Amino acid sequence: MTLSSLILLIIVFFVMSMIGVVTGSNSLVTVPVMFQFGIEPKVAVATNMFGLTFLNIGATLPFVKEGLIDYKKLSPLVILTLISSALGAILIGLITSEAIPVIVSVSMILVAVFTLVKRDAGIEKVTDISQKAKIITFILTFLLGIYGGLYSGGYVTILTAVYVAFFGMTFTEAVAGTKFINVFSSLIATVIFAWQGLIDYKLGIILAITMFIAAYIGAKTVTKLNDIWLKRIFLAVVFLLAVKTIFDFTLK
């Protein structure tokens, strides 16, 4: 990879990591960009996942400092995520490189549809959560964790929507909670990808530093925004990414 290509990649990762603190889905942009630079799809996914671990740590730190992480509430979800994301990371060896871009496109469309259906929640915290809603949250956390370990593009976006829709969280709580959970999802997936020999560490370390710094700055900004603004940013970026996905489909 040339120096100019590397600089362009760093800029893309920095910008998307800042935005991704609120919206998630940065992998839906960063990984396809890596494809365009000729990086083999499975290596791109694994190297991006390595960077995501540092992104999530950088994003979580300001939320921890502000006391926005409900450890008791999130603990069972972390356990489910560790198991399911490990399964997902193992599955990458069972899918073809050609299938990964298809997964990218379909996942973004699902995010857009899900956000449309649950567009009115996330402004006020809901304390009275039904048992049925809790069960749905646990099931979806497990299923999404598989996808999070496999690829992660759109994973945090959908997970944020799930916690707002079913777990009674405000957007601020959901954004903080999903970053904390994704530390574990990306970490366990990274360990498995490393075992499979899929990570480009030379590139990964550069991107990891970039993502950590950008996510920390982004999270510091998020802690100063109210839930209404977070919702607006979340919806705007999700729909822009959905339009991009549909546009990409029309070019094939």
Describe this structure in words.
- It is built from 10 helices and no strands.
- It is mainly alpha-helical and 252 residues long.
- It has one domain (3-250).
- 51% of the residues are buried.
Short précis:
The chain has 252 residues and is mostly helical. The chain has helices at 3-23, 27-36, 41-65, 71-91, 99-117, 131-150, 155-166, 171-195, 201-222, 227-250.
Please render the helix and strand layout as text.
Elements: H1 3-23, H2 27-36, H3 41-65, H4 71-91, H5 99-117, H6 131-150, H7 155-166, H8 171-195, H9 201-222, H10 227-250
Low-confidence stretches: none
Task: Please report which band the strand proportion falls in: under 5%, 5-15%, 15-25%, 25-35%, 35-45% or over 45%.
Answer: under 5%
Instruction: Please outline the major beta sheet.
Output: none
Structural class: mainly alpha
How confident overall, as mean pLDDT?
84
Number of helices: 10
End-to-end separation in angstroms reads 26 Å
Oligomerization status of the protein chains: single chain
What would you call the shape? Answer: globular
State the total count of DSSP E strands: 0
The ordered string of helix (H) and strand (E) elements is HHHHHHHHHH
Total domain units? 1
Provide the helix percentage. over 70%
Question: What is the C-alpha radius of gyration, as a whole number of Å?
Answer: 17 Å
